[in-house]
């Protein structure tokens, strides 16, 4: 298991327009403001290998109505290896090999905390929102080919036409957690 927010929180104080607060029962919250991007080298958190089967768990809140990137893994040549995007009506999973899945989900941008989880295996992509299984996609996963020589981004934009975060928050209690299976 890798707690991405724990790693990112170490650089928040150095960044403009993002900060860490404590909320509720001592849960640390990272607030990422407009045009702010938190970046980590993938090697820093995954060492020499990223598994082909994994779970990605996010706990987030947002009021933004436009579609925006929440979480992105980039190759050294800025190719998207894995990206999670949200909008008012959908959550989008983008992977390598032209894999782009848009799941209809309303209410993710209502300012309330939501838990989002993706389970990636060799045969299925499963989406859970607020602890309910919403959809299973059958697929043949021969590996997403996610190398560890790229970057992990929370927030930010890749293209000039994209909408950046206005303000989104990520909680430490459930945090951004990646479980790698072997």
From TrEMBL:
Check the record and name the Pfam families matching this protein: Laminin_G_2
InterPro entries attached to this UniProt entry: ConA-like_dom_sf, Laminin_G, TSPN-like_N
Top-rank taxon, per record: Eukaryota
**Any idea which UniProt keywords this protein has?**
Repeat, Signal
Tell me yes or no: is Signal among this UniProt entry's keywords.
yes
Q: Which residues form the Thrombospondin-like N-terminal domain?
A: 1-176
The protein in question is named: Thrombospondin-like N-terminal domain-containing protein
The organism is Ameca splendens
Q: What is the lineage of its organism?
A: Eukaryota, Metazoa, Chordata, Craniata, Vertebrata
């Amino acid at each position: 298991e890798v707690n991405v927010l724990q790693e990112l929180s170490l650089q928040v104080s150095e960044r403009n327009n993002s900060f860490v607060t404590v909320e509720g029962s001592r849960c640390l919250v990272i607030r990422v403001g407009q045009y702010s991007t938190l970046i980590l080298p993938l090697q820093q958190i995954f060492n020499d290998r990223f598994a082909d089967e994994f779970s990605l768990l996010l706990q987030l809140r947002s009021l933004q109505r436009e579609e925006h990137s929440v979480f992105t893994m980039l190759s050294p040549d800025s190719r998207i290896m894995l990206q999670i995007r949200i909008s008012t009506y959908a959550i989008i999973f983008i992977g390598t090999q032209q894999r782009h899945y848009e799941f209809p989900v309303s209410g993710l941008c209502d300012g309330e905390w939501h838990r989002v989880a993706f389970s990636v295996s060799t045969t299925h992509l499963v989406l859970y929102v607020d602890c309910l299984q919403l959809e299973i996609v059958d697929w043949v996963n021969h590996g997403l080919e996610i190398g560890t020589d790229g970057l992990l981004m929370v927030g930010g934009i890749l293209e000039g036409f994209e909408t950046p975060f206005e303000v989104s928050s990520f909680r430490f209690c459930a945090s951004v957690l990646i479980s790698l299976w072997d």
